[in-house]
Amino acid sequence: MQAELNLETPYVGCEIIPIVSLHSKEGSKVIPDDKLKFNWYRLQNQERPICCMHPTQIATFQCRDCSVLEKHVKESFHCSLKCYHDQWLNHRKRHIAAPSQTTADVVDHESDYDCSCCSAFDKDSLINKNAEIVHGSWVKVGSSKTYLPTIKDFGYRLKLEAVAAFFSEGKPRVHTEVKTNHVIIPPPRRYMFPVTPLDGFSNFKLESKICFTRSFSVLSYNILADLCATPSRYSYCPASTLNWQYRSQNLLREIIRYDADVICLQEVQHDHFEEFFMPKLGEIGYSGIHKSKTSALFTSKKDYVFEGCATFFRLSKFRLIKKYELEFKRTAQKIAWSVDAEKSRSMMKDNIALTVILEAIKAEPVSDTLNHRICVANVHVSADPENTDVKLWQVGTLIEDLERNVAHSNIPVLICADLNSLPRSAAHTLVVNGRVDLKHEELVNTPDGIIEHLKLSHKLLPLASAYSSFSRTKNGDMIDSDTKEPRFTTATLYFRNTIDYIFYTEGLLTVKNLLELLDEESAIKHTAFPSPLWSSDHIALMSEFSWKSPS
């Protein structure tokens, strides 16, 4: 008999639901609830490893010298490496002030919180990354099938025991148990902020052009593929929250909470799409498509893994009309002969784009000849910082593909992009301005061989960045006043800036609401992203749009 939980890492306020099945030579079958008895337990420790500075966070770091003592010094627990470093000067003073003590000495002074002295006061050498209190006892907290964690469970592990109450006569009772990770407090909810029109709706003609009866929301999110989430790259993130088992549940919870009609994800491994995201999102009414990059990566687990872009849409809202797949490497092969060998190699990137045409279900036509359709492109552009001309070429190639497929159909275009390009870069400029000058600083040293293949203007209807409207919300201070884009959409230890965007056809759609952005404090609270709260090195972007009625 085996029990599985819908949440391996529970969080306060979200119900844990088990499925218990019986395995035999004939296969496995789910045991009916009326044949089972359930008991829930909490591992009640004498003390929870809670951060001394942030009481809503579980401690993941501890002063090693304090840990050696057989006493849990509350002031030695910290929720992140940054938190530990920020408090190091105060903690060091306590080390210096403390007399040299043995473990036995400390036991004799249980009212003291001083640490023993150290021969060297190097904050990094004193880090204990396994700040977990293991002693304690299991206390019964429930006897129903499901369990709803409360704030009392925060920081503790839970255990479910399931006992088969009845089998055929002569067979023994069968039981199983399953334990969870520590119960966490979910990150603060990110809310949608209404966008105020430029004239505050004082112009009746402007208001009348907006079709308020039908709106839809689009989410774009680079979720950080597991094959990229290595301890060497993200050493500041606790291993327990960097592993895919934890991150997958946290990402899914976050994505479901946003409740978007269209979801565009980047860095989605093919196996995770098939085995996790598609089944989980399918259960709540989504259909999805995945396109892998053209090359697999060899992982530390000694296997080859494909990752790429995945687009999901709510079946009650949209139907799929058509899809287009774009492989930049295949297109580059057609022009490789005209550039030098070094540039040819730099163009042979395995990046891809996935484009879908969706039609709204049960929607009144925008006009006698036009239904509510949207074209959504999901793209992840090359990350190579040395080849900005290649980024521009990839973006231009995508736009050419969109021009061929939708330019003459009057269908609104949305581009959900990890552009790996900053605001006002050549790639960003081409999208939002419709053209880019050869005198742009990123193009002045571009070889002549590739210049002739760069798309420097496009024929799509004018595109705008959805978040350029964010300055007209109550959360507008999160926008860079110079670029009119978010201050950052990715925040790692060495890089914090904006490279993710949602672009849209400005003449056919209007932005109604935008998902609030995270502030700098959220980014550095646990040093950087990913963190125990936010499981990607990027943040999600989301916009709600309305169709504009024809003039």
TrEMBL record:
Residues 219-538 form the Endonuclease/exonuclease/phosphatase domain. It comes from the Eukaryota. PANTHER family: CARBON CATABOLITE REPRESSOR PROTEIN 4, CARBON CATABOLITE REPRESSOR PROTEIN 4 HOMOLOG 1-LIKE ISOFORM X1. One of its GO terms (molecular function) is 3'-5'-RNA exonuclease activity. This is Endonuclease/exonuclease/phosphatase domain-containing protein. SUPFAM superfamilies: DNase I-like.
